[in-house]
TrEMBL record:
SMART domains: RHOD
InterPro entries, sorted: Rhodanese-like_dom, Rhodanese-like_dom_sf, Thiosulphate_STrfase_CS, TST/MPST-like
Residue ranges of every copy of the Rhodanese domain listed in the record: 19-143, 199-304
Signal peptide: none
EC number(s) stated in the UniProt entry for this protein: 2.8.1.2
Keywords carried by this UniProt record: Pyruvate, Repeat, Transferase
Entry protein name: 3-mercaptopyruvate sulfurtransferase
GO molecular function: 3-mercaptopyruvate sulfurtransferase activity; thiosulfate-cyanide sulfurtransferase activity
Keyword set includes Ribosomal protein: no
Length: 306
């Protein structure tokens, strides 16, 4: 098992270290649109080419990191393919990797942080506030693409970062184990058609902490369409203050010595939750990679609505 650095790093540190030869900055973005009530994920490299942090390389979550051999969409690449993709981006075993995205809360960046951690990289961090915070502070950006030399990263699977379907089944209602759904409240309750699954509802015994809560718990009940404006009003895209965030989780009955399994629709929003959990010191927290897309597709598995 590897010893990890703390998950978050701030913009001031990154600005002061842009020329560090061991630094590898990765811009990873994940977009989606709704078609007939269902989420369709896609990548848009042109947005990166138009504006990104100096020295960053780009990788698309849906087209370059998703495992197309799996029946469940957007599951992470296996170790061999993932390692090759990271080497193409210039990642080495001794790199200090900083990942970010442009979504206003860490979604794709948190997922890549999780994947690198799961595959044994010891020094990977998420830029707190991402590109939005960087721009808010008036820091420089650049355009175009960057060509880098291949790295030498070799994955070593760390099993303490991932939960499988069988693990979730075993965890339901088990003392000391909490299952957390990081999707919006309406999807957790089972209102209407589920954007990311074949059935509506949630995994039995799960509690709901919408991913946006990790930025500001007060935004949890704000409609998604209004959140970008609210975040700008807030004046920060960083994760919530440690004490406020910890209290929010404890109010949901989650304690730092609990084992926690995070899930969402396709493991994206849950990665944001896992990032917050690890930042707060929840060392026994894992990501259910298949998430609701896998769970809801199996008609044998139980579902709750509320």
């Amino acid at each position: 098992m590897t010893t990890q650095t703390r998950p978050l790093i701030d913009t001031a540190w990154l600005a002061d270290n842009l020329t560090n030869p061991k630094l590898r900055i990765i811009d990873v973005r994940w977009k989606f649109r709704e078609e007939n009530g269902k989420g369709v994920a896609y990548d848009d490299r042109s947005e990166f080419q138009a504006e990104h942090i100096p020295g960053a390389v780009y990788v698309g979550m849906s087209t370059e990191l998703a495992n197309s051999t799996q029946n469940t969409p957007d599951m992470m690449l296996g170790p061999e393919d993932f390692g090759e993709r990271m080497r193409e981006l210039g990642v080495s075993n001794d790199s200090h990797v900083v990942v970010y995205d442009d979504s206003g809360l860490p979604l794709a960046s948190a997922r890549l942080w999780w994947a690198l951690s799961h595959y044994g990289h010891k020094n990977v961090q998420v830029l707190d506030g991402g590109l939005q915070q960087w721009k808010l502070e008036g820091r420089p950006t650049e355009t175009g693409d960057l060509t880098v030399e291949h790295g030498d990263f070799e994955p070593t699977v760390q099993s303490n970062w991932i939960a499988r379907k069988a693990d979730v089944l075993d965890a339901m209602g088990k003392p000391g184990v909490r299952i957390v759904d990081f999707l919006p409240n309406n999807l957790f309750r089972g209102d209407g058609v589920h954007t990311w699954g074949g059935r509506s509802g949630h995994i039995p015994s799960a509690v709901n902490i919408p991913a946006i809560s990790n930025i500001d718990p007060d935004l949890a009940h704000i409609p998604i369409s209004e959140r970008a404006a609210k975040l700008k009003e807030r004046g920060s895209f960083k994760l919530a203050d440690h004490s406020k965030l910890l209290k929010h989780y404890q109010d949901k009955g989650i304690q730092t010595d609990d084992e926690v399994i995070a899930y969402c629709g396709r493991g994206i929003a849950a990665s944001c939750g896992l990032l917050a959990l690890r930042q707060m010191g929840f060392e026994k927290s894992r990501l259910y990679d298949g998430s609701w897309a896998e769970w809801s597709a199996d008609e044998i598995l139980p579902v709750e609505t509320s």
